[in-house]
UniProtKB/TrEMBL annotation:
Residues 1-122 form the Peptidase M14 domain. GO terms for biological process: peptide metabolic process; protein processing. The lineage of its organism: Eukaryota, Metazoa, Chordata, Craniata, Vertebrata. The keyword Hydrolase applies. Keywords: Carboxypeptidase, Hydrolase, Protease. It comes from the Eukaryota. PANTHER family: CARBOXYPEPTIDASE D, B, PROTEASE M14 CARBOXYPEPTIDASE. PROSITE patterns: PEPTIDASE_M14. The active site is at E92. Residues 1-20 are annotated as: Disordered. This is CBPD Carboxypeptidase. It comes from Picathartes gymnocephalus. It holds the Pfam family Peptidase_M14. GO terms for cellular component: extracellular space.
Amino acid sequence: GSVVASYPYDDSPTHSPTGVYSKSADDEVFKYLAKAYASHHPIMRTGKPNCPGEEGETFPDGITNGAQWYDVEGGMQDYNYVWANCFEITLELSCCKYPPTSELPKEWENNRESLLAFIEKV
């Protein structure tokens, strides 16, 4: 896990594991939506999730192009965009994929304003 808003494309023409910016026709819209979420999240907006084992990982403005972060061939986010014209972003909300129940109130507080801001944009 991490704490970042990721946007299409997740797949790149070269299928390099990381580092390839895969721009969609609606890249500016996706960046706008991702920033709308990230800018209201206390950790995400720093661009430094500081996840164990990935302490040096950074995401400017708390967002990333999916393929630039890591290539995912055949992902649902890209499929829905290409075949159903759905504008989706992927929200990585925690360094831990399955946080303990005791952490959920804190996660809600971290994400409440971001969710409201995102809904307002939609």
